[in-house]
Structures are given as structure tokens and as C-alpha cells.
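Thread: "does anyone have the structure for this chain?"

Original post by V.I.:
We have the sequence but no experimental structure in hand. Need at least a predicted one for the grant figures.
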Amino acid sequence: MTLLDHLALMSAFDAIAVSLLLFSWLGISWRIEHPAKGRKSVTSLMAEYRRDWMSEFVTRDNRIFDATLVASLRQGTSFFASTCILAIGGVLALVGNTAPLRGVAEEFTSSAAPAFVWQLKLMFVALFLTNAFLKFVWAHRVFGYCSVVMGSVPNDPEHPLARPRARQAAELNIRAAVNYNRGLQSMYFALGTLAWLMGPVPLLIAIAVVVWLLWSREFASIPRDVLESERREP
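Reply from O.Q.:
Generated one for you, C-alpha cells below.
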């Protein structure tokens, strides 16, 4: 069978669900990074705090605290990158041998499907995990750039290079955080895509749940309200 013959095994409903999956993934990421002016996301609020952090960093005599913070952020990216590698390995192992998965999935779907169908669904999970891995690795590296630039900030706050380099460090810190968040979003969607193994309807439900989780945590969570309230003018 050719690739087109294999793809013909998928229903139009599957194609619609996958299209909505990709649209939701890109759409919620764009909305989080480009929120409306009247309703900032946690990501945009934290960007402001990161700029404030680097502004205070210039005047801080002992900068060990700041170095510890950046190291902690890099450890988080390393942990999730390692987790993605393990998850990708597990998914690829299932792609190579779908028999155990087919037995479990068919209990829920009550229908038999060729191995290609299960492999295709698992490959979408692997693609999301791979994207997450690449985002975490890049975030880890950019946090490294940030730490180097922070190290180049003169100790004298009045030095002409002090504040410009602190601003550079802040923007690098923000870009690293953006990629870190994108990696987390891909992991959320990878988990949601697993529902496709039970059919397009469970996938649509999983998409709605994932989008709601990401939206609520960025725009309607208690931490977000705390972050915004602390930035309001007294």
C-alpha cells in the first residue's frame, strides 16, 4: 500500500480533529504571548518582573542570589528536556510494536484498525514531544547566554555599560522563558493527543481540556491575579 492508501484509512472526522489540534496549539500559544491590553497573561506579567529583576540586579552588591536563580531556571529546563527524551523513547518503542497498544485501545473503540493508524497517531505525540525537547534545549542555552551577559554587567551602577547590559540580560531571560513555556505547552498537547488513540471525539474533548487548562492558568489563575495586583499603582 502507498502512503495515500494508508492515509485513506483515516476518516474525515480524524482530519478535522487533527486540524483543530494544530490550530489550537498554535492559537493558544500566540494568544498567551500576545494578550489583549486589558488582560495580560502570566507570561507577559512575568516578562515585566524579569525586567525589574535585572534593573535591581545592577544595584545589588552581592550577586550570588541572582546567579542561583538563573542556575535554578536552567535546572528546570534540563529536567524537562530529559523527561522528553525518555517519553520520546517510549513512544517510538510503541511505534515499533503497536500490538500491546492496539489490544488496549480496541477495548475502548470496539473496532480494529491496521498498525499504520496507531503508528500515525503515536507519531503526532512524538512530534509534540520532539518540539518540546527542542524548545527546552534552546531555553537552557539562552539562559546560559543570559548568565554570561549578567556576568559582564559592571559592578558600578553608574558605569555606562551597566544598565544597557542588564537590559540585554533581561531580554535574553524573557526569550528563554518564552521557549520554556512553549515546551510546556507542547507537552500538554502531547498528553492530549494520546486521546486520539480512542478516536477523534476523545481527541476533540482532550483539545478542549488542554486549551482550557492553558488559558485558565495564564489568564484566570490565582497566581496571575497576585502578579497583577502587585504591579498596580498604590
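V.I.: this helps a lot. The chain has nine helices and no strands.
O.Q.: and Residues 53 and 68 are 13 Å apart (CA to CA).
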